[in-house]
Amino acid sequence: MAALSAWFWNERFWLPHNVTWADLENPAPGVEYPKAGHLFTALPLALGIFVVRILFERFIASPCARSLHIHQGVGRRAQPNAVLEKVFTSITKNPDSRHLDGLSKQLDWEVRKVQRWFRHRRNQDKPSTHTKFCESMWRFTFYLCIFTYGFQFLWQSPWMWDTRHCWYGYPYQAMTSGLYHYYVTELAFYWSLMFSQFTDIKRKDFLIMFIHHLATVSLISFSYVNNMARVGSLVLCVHDASDFLLEAAKMANYAKYQRLCDFLFIVFSVAFFITRLVIYPICFFLFIYLLCIGKVMFVFWSCKQLLNFF
């Protein structure tokens, strides 16, 4: 393990020439450099964010949904049947004609009745519009708040206006409290997303989103450890700039405000294109492989959103 750790944290990869990890351990009085141990704060904070999310969805998002006449609908449930339930959970949720004929004979049911049972059972597992609205409202609120905080912080930072400041004196750049809080909060949020993904609404892009969260957590963590937090803060802000617009469009869609949904989706598409496909490559620096993963997924989602819109 020691050899693996030494190989992974090789100073020639992470740090400039003639700089060692030891050089960053003893900063001048009143100056704080990033340390890997700082990131452990994100884990309890991620748990706190998850708890806040549960309370937010229950006591804020859910009443808002009801006020918009988005109720927790209960569709028709499939009648209990041990044989069909076993097939549904362990074999297939969409039986073909061979399975349907076999089940029809086994239960002495008409094929159409078996088909109806499977349809009701599939619909039973689908999340309600109320649930999807609450999830989107939570993400909208967080993305909007963190983007507002990040933008206000960066507005006062010289590297927002001149990216060369990201590298002046690198890696001997002091970690300010504002930058630290921004970084750790973002890291904690993505940790919470990665874990809650297993309890949230199951989506078709589950694997892609899991890889995205894992890559994001790795990118934030590694960029913090080797003190690339300045350029990292720009990347984070660029990512957050369009996310809250997408969630707002989803909320409008769930509330059946179609014109508002279309408008917000157009604004989101423009913001997404500018921030992810134009500005984002400017921040394309180290961690090339992690950033490439993000780039490929951004192109994929851009094409997907355009196809859905047209």
Automatic annotation (TrEMBL):
Gene Ontology terms for molecular function: DNA binding; sphingosine N-acyltransferase activity
Entry-linked PANTHER family: CERAMIDE SYNTHASE 5, LONGEVITY ASSURANCE FACTOR 1 LAG1
Gene name for this UniProt entry: CERS5
Listed transmembrane segments: 36-56, 140-160, 180-199, 206-225, 260-279, 285-303
Subcellular location: Endoplasmic reticulum membrane; Nucleus
Catalytic activity: sphinganine + octadecanoyl-CoA = N-(octadecanoyl)-sphinganine + CoA + H(+)
Keywords from the UniProt entry: DNA-binding, Endoplasmic reticulum, Homeobox, Lipid biosynthesis, Lipid metabolism, Membrane, Nucleus, Transferase, Transmembrane, Transmembrane helix
CDD domains, per the entry: homeodomain
Domain named TLC: residues: 131-310
GO cellular component: endoplasmic reticulum membrane; nucleus
An annotated GO BP: ceramide biosynthetic process
Domain of life: Eukaryota
Domain Homeobox: from-to ranges: 84-128
Gene3D superfamilies hit by this protein: Homeodomain-like
Annotated membrane topology: Multi-pass membrane protein
DNA-binding region: 86-129
Protein known as: Ceramide synthase 5
The UniProt record lists the keyword Transport: no
Pathway annotation: Lipid metabolism; sphingolipid metabolism; Sphingolipid metabolism
